[in-house]
Design a protein that fits this description.
By secondary structure, this protein is an all-alpha fold. It starts with 5 loop residues before the first helix and ends in a 5-residue tail after the last helix. The protein has eleven helices and two strands; from the N terminus they run ααααααααββααα. Helix 1 packs parallel to helix 3 and helix 3 crosses helix 8. The model has no long low-confidence stretch (mean pLDDT about 95). A hairpin with a 2-residue loop joins strand 1 and strand 2. The longest helix is centred in the N-terminal third of the chain and has 24 residues.
């Protein structure tokens, strides 16, 4: 199978947390936020998959492990966390998880480097790895679910954008690109779910 079952995924998830705690100095707050975020994305992805008549367990697993690469320090490794996760999941034979680790940041494979605040050499490698991949509804679900969590709160994607913009000091172009991405994702997922997903997910706009 190209992704682990829920039980094995939760073991991998916990091992990633344990690895990060053992090898990197991170505040308890960051640790809590990672746990809250990944569990939240997993549960929300499961709900969206159910609404779209997709495999709920697969969506949960992909959501739980989408940030697997963050078990390592990407600045210390000088490598984007999506690539770190992609490589590790490939080494374990979980190709679907590997893809999600990479695609959850890039709704558009043909992105412009100016739309992101990451170093160009990280983005160039991501673009090269993304080129042969074919996106599925699972990629869309995880990309969308990823936008509902900020700190230790469940928020609207618009509020998430405000947090990202402030935290990473995004340029006006980067913020605009992010807003366009969220609009595209919401419209697409709404159509696939045949409902307003904010209402379905009980998100207060």
């Amino acid at each position: 199978m190209s992704y682990p079952n829920r039980y094995d995924a939760e073991i991998i998830w916990q091992q990633g947390i344990d690895y990060s705690r053992a090898h990197h100095v991170k505040s308890p707050q960051i640790d809590k936020e990672y746990i809250f975020h990944t569990q939240g994305v997993a549960k929300l992805s499961e709900l969206l998959a159910q609404k779209m008549s997709l495999n709920e367990e697969k969506a949960y697993v992909l959501g739980l492990l989408h940030d697997h690469g963050k078990r390592q320090d990407e600045r210390q490794q000088d490598c984007f966390h999506g690539i770190l996760g992609y490589r590790d999941m490939l080494s374990q034979g979980y190709t679907d998880v590997a893809q999600i680790c990479l695609t959850h940041t890039f709704v558009n494979k043909d992105f412009s480097n100016e739309d992101y605040s990451y170093p160009d050499h990280w983005l160039d490698e991501c673009r090269s790895l993304l080129k042969p991949l074919i996106y599925s509804d699972y990629d869309l679900i995880i990309q969308y679910a990823d936008m509902f969590f900020e700190g230790l709160s469940c928020v609207t994607p618009e509020q998430r954008i405000e947090g990202i913009t402030s935290r990473y000091q995004l340029s006006a172009q980067q913020e605009y690109s992010l807003r366009q991405t969220v609009t595209y994702l919401k419209t697409t997922i709404d159509n696939k779910c045949q409902c307003d997903t904010y209402q379905f997910l009980e998100i207060i706009k």
